[in-house]
Design goal:
It is a single chain. The chain is of the alpha+beta class and 464 residues long. The protein has 15 helices and 16 strands. The chain has two domains: 192 residues, no CATH class; 262 residues, C8orf32 fold (Roll), CATH 3.10.620.30. Strand 12 and strand 13 form a beta hairpin. The longest helix is centred in the C-terminal third of the chain and has 14 residues. It starts with a helix and ends in a 7-residue tail after the last helix.
């Protein structure tokens, strides 16, 4: 356990930095040096938005509670969380507008006495730079924001920089930090304290989908409920599940699934979320990883959370092109045939994945590359596949007993589903951080299967 935590902490890069890159503070310039300031602005690649988009997103920025998001008292954490929660990773293919950059201001001559960070974009309409400052009623001109800070500096040095990467602290490098580091910073109250990581690690055993060969799923469910702690009683996703064979109730529940326009959209988005590499590998730093599709044994709830939380963001996210997918949960003595396990199969007491509805046909599809990496599966086909009685699963006596659909932030069976019941964006994001554990196991699995791990986890995935 300690070895796992150490590897993850190193991957989060609280102390590490790129050897050939200066820190954000070291690369900052005196604000009053107009030539140096303009050079920073010109080279920053700050994204350009039109004026109406800036105003629309700013309205979202100033009303976090409407999107079920917490409002941190720390401005820098609030601003980091805003960027992370609405845009996710820099390479996110689902956003309408490019991720804002980060404008940094430091007070102090020889050392930082105070630091400030605000999201920054450039207006394609008037050519000005605007920052998002929650003390302002509207998007604020960069110069106005800086002048407000200067007025508090009492004549001291004011230094300025822009980062278009994941760095957050003065000692960070801009490009030397990884997405997990930024998210961990945004989720937690103490600078550099990996609370979210530790919570995710502690929850792995309780949320585990693993079921031993021949074990009855009800026993595993009750054991995990006990491990989970107090739990949420009859309000949990598991407790509210319904019989899969009750066709009338099944169809009624499936119609609550979030919709996308048509199957073409669903297929295209499936391929994008399957192939996106945005995690930093905990064992090979600088190597970007996909979600752990090639380790089907466990971690399904962290995969679903990563897809939905990282790539689609908060409720009503105007920065994203698509509504958040729902999650489907299936419970039973589950068995799925797979080429990604030496036995040719995996056994679970539950399985979960993102779920989406075709708005044209009302057909509901599961987005689960751990089961079928080529295409979305109809929910009926997915249920059949995870309760297989052929191949390596031929003696499994597998079946789906109950299922549920969650359109909220609930991540594992013993969570409640919706924010009004107690689920939160932050708790879902914390579960997604658990991906690092399963990516480590995924790498080991490729070695066990005598594959070239770097190739299959990189540019030569099996489905390619």
């Amino acid at each position: 356990m300690r070895a796992i935590l150490l590897a993850l902490l190193l991957s989060f890069g609280h102390l590490a930095m790129a050897a050939d890159e200066p820190t954000i503070y070291d690369s900052s310039v005196n604000w009053d040096d107009i030539a140096a300031r303009n050079k920073i602005l010109e080279s920053s690649k700050t994204p350009e938005w039109d004026a109406s988009s800036i105003v629309s997103v700013y309205d979202m920025y100033t009303h976090p509670k409407e999107h079920k998001l917490p409002s941190s008292k720390d401005d820098q954490k609030f601003n980091t969380a805003f960027i992370d929660e609405f845009w996710g990773p820099i390479a996110n293919p689902f956003v309408k507008y490019a991720r804002p950059a980060k404008a940094f201001v430091y007070l102090g001559q020889d050392k930082v006495s105070a630091s400030f960070m605000a999201p920054i974009v450039k207006s394609a309409t008037d050519g000005n730079y605007y920052v998002f400052n929650r003390n302002s009623s509207k998007p604020q001109l960069l110069e106005e924001w800086i002048n407000e800070i200067k007025s508090k500096a009492l004549g001291g040095s004011v230094k300025f920089d822009i980062c278009n990467g994941y760095g957050n602290l003065p000692a960070d490098t801009c490009a030397g930090k990884c997405y997990q580091a930024e998210e961990n910073f945004a989720l937690n109250s103490g600078v550099g304290e990996p609370d979210g990581l530790l919570k995710a690690d502690a929850r792995i055993k309780s949320a585990s989908a693993y079921r031993a060969e021949g074990e009855d799923w009800h026993k595993r469910a009750e054991n995990n409920k006990t491990l989970f702690g107090a739990g949420n009683g009859s309000g949990s996703i598991y407790q509210k599940s319904i019989k899969w064979n009750d066709v009338e109730k099944r169809n009624e529940l499936l119609q609550t699934t979030s919709p996308w326009a048509n199957y073409q959209t669903i297929q295209g988005n499936f391929e994008k979320l399957r192939d996106l590499r945005y995690f930093d590998d905990t064992q090979k730093h600088g190597f970007s990883r996909r979600i752990s599709w090639l380790y089907p044994d466990d971690g399904c709830w962290t995969r679903a959370s990563a897809v939905i939380n990282h790539l689609f963001g908060a409720d009503g996210n105007v920065a994203n092109q698509f509504v958040r997918p729902s999650k489907v949960f299936a419970f039973g003595n589950l068995c799925a045939n797979t080429p990604n396990h030496k036995s040719g199969k995996v056994n679970w007491w539950y399985h979960t994945a993102p779920l989406i509805r075709d708005a044209q046909t009302n057909q509901v599809y599961v987005l689960d590359p751990s089961i079928d990496a080529k295409k979305p599966m109809t929910v009926e086909s997915w249920m059949e596949t995870i309760s297989a009685k052929t191949g390596a699963c031929k003696n499994s006596k597998a079946s789906v007993d109950t299922f549920n659909v969650c359109t909220g932030f609930g991540a594992s069976p013993h969570d409640v589903c919706k924010s009004e019941e107690g689920a939160s964006f932050v708790s879902e994001a914390t579960e997604a951080l658990g991906q690092s554990n399963y990516q480590r196991l995924e790498r080991s699995r490729q070695v066990q299967l005598e594959r070239d791990a770097d190739k299959v986890l990189g540019d030569e995935a099996p489905w390619m």
